[in-house]
Amino acid sequence: MTHRALVVRADPSGTRERPHAAALEHVADEAAGDADLLVDVAFSSVNYKDALALAGRPGIISSPPLAAGIDAVGTVASAAGRFSVGDAVVVNGAGIGERTPGGLSERVRVDPASVVRLPEGITPWRAAAIGTAGFTAMLSVLALERHGVVPGSGPVLVTGAAGGVGTIAVALLARLGYDVTASTGRVDEQGGRLRALGARTVVDRAELGGEGKPLQKAVWAGAIDSVGSRTLANVLARTAWGGTVTACGLAQGADLPTTVLPFILRGVTLAGINSVDAPPALREEAWARLAADLDPAVLDDSTATIPLAGALSAAEDVLAGRVAGRLVVDVRA
Ligand SMILES: NC(=O)c1ccc[n+]([C@@H]2O[C@H](COP(=O)([O-])OP(=O)(O)OC[C@H]3O[C@@H](n4cnc5c(N)ncnc54)[C@H](OP(=O)(O)O)[C@@H]3O)[C@@H](O)[C@H]2O)c1
Questions:
Q1: Is pLDDT at 302 greater than 90 in this prediction?
Q2: 118 lines ligand 1 (CB under 6 A)
Q3: Digit-coded pLDDT (tens) for 276-298
Q4: Which of 46, 141, 227 has most ligand 1 atoms within 8 Å of its beta carbon, as the pocket-test mutant?
Q5: Ligand 1 atom 46: residue of nearest CA
Q6: What is the DSSP-derived secondary structure letter of residue 1?
Q7: Would you state the pLDDT for residue 80?
Q8: According to the UniProt entry, where is the signal peptide (predicted)?
Q9: Where in the chain is the domain with CATH 3.90.180.10?
Q10: What are the pLDDT digits (tens) for 217-274?
């Protein structure tokens, strides 16, 4: 038996910047991997990492050939662990689409420990719309809460706000009652959408993207950053005493040109977020909170649905910053 998958292979005519190439292929079912739980995939999504992998960039898939896709939503096809055939499940990260075959495939085998049963009230399509981006946004909100940043603490900033993580972070924080400031490079195009999601203030990312002093006027009680580099340095420099900034991404760069001053003079905490290796209990907690705290309809206007083959061109759009919100891949289309 075979199934369809977006497979990333080494490209003999590739370059250093693009050593791989991806294509839609019919592959043998054995290519779904050798983990215990077989999932019939209904939906996946295109996250930033998936875009890099599908565009043939290095650093995501170390041992091609491999099906891409760090998210998979579908039904269990063969019972394993605490799961029965037909259970609706979601997997985010856990190495799929990086170290083991991914969810941009009609079938994938996954480690049951990383699998979460779809919570009541979240449809498979919406679970894919949430995807790793929404899971990471929720992990970031949980980190703010654990460090005492609560609604009423003061304004909370979200950087990269028009992107996947940012969009869902804005929606979650606003629904929880936080005073949200959204930073985006697309104020004119995306400002209205971000306000509709609940941002009280929208600022131009250029205000945060340049070189800045190590300590600046304190503004935010907390922040969710998916941008890194100078942006994160400026966010730390503008965080108020005792505030917390979560860091999950590197859209501007992997560097962090800062000093210890925000930490030793304002008691600021920098909390790292890693969705890929999140332990099972944290996965369950995050999905339960997504079911409780994310307005299920909020993503409908911020999400486009594309067929499996469409993910290849969508990847270039994501890397060029032309996509806002989330991209769901209908793996069966
Ligand atoms: N640690 C984890 O577990 C984890 C999980 C998920 C994602 N991530 C990382 O988080 C980041 C965001 O992921 P995503 O899926 O939300 O990606 P995305 O949908 O492509 O959004 C990224 C956003 O970052 C902003 N941006 C892009 N280039 C920028 C630049 N040069 N300077 C400042 N801002 C820039 C843009 O927002 P505006 O248009 O609003 O300016 C863009 O929409 C990526 O680096 C991704 O790898 C990490």
A1: no
A2: no
A3: 999 999 999 999 999 999 998 88
A4: 227
A5: 249
A6: -
A7: 86
A8: none
A9: 2-121+300-330
A10: 999 999 999 999 999 999 999 999 999 999 999 999 999 999 999 999 999 999 999 9
For domain 2-121+300-330, give its CATH number from 3.30.1330.60, 3.60.150.10, 3.90.180.10, 3.20.20.70.
Answer: 3.90.180.10
In short, whether 114's Cβ falls inside 6 Å of ligand 1 is no
Backbone phi, then psi, for 267, in 5-degree steps?
A: 60, 30
pLDDT tens digits, 143-168: 999 999 999 999 999 999 999 999 99
pLDDT in tens, 13-39: 999 999 999 999 999 999 999 999 999
CATH top-level class of 132-272:
alpha beta
Residues of the chain with CATH 3.40.50.720: 132-272
Q: Ligand 1 centre from 103 Cα, in Å?
A: 20
Q: Which of 147, 139, 84, 133 is nearest to 112 (CA)?
A: 84
Residue 101 CA, ligand 1 centroid: distance in Å: 23
Q: Are 46 and 133 in contact (CB under 8 A)?
A: no
For the Cβ of 224 lying below 6 angstroms from any atom of ligand 1, the answer is: no
Phi, psi of 37 (to 5 degrees): -105, 120
Q: Give residue for tokens 């990492």.
A: 49
Percent of the chain with pLDDT over 70: 100
Helix (H) or strand (E) holding 315: helix 310-319
Is any atom of ligand 1 closer than 6 Å to the C-beta of 184? yes
* Ligand 1 center–CA 18 separation, angstroms: 20
State whether the beta carbon of 231 lies less than 6 angstroms from ligand 1. Answer: yes
Question: 170 CB under 6 A from ligand 1?
Answer: no
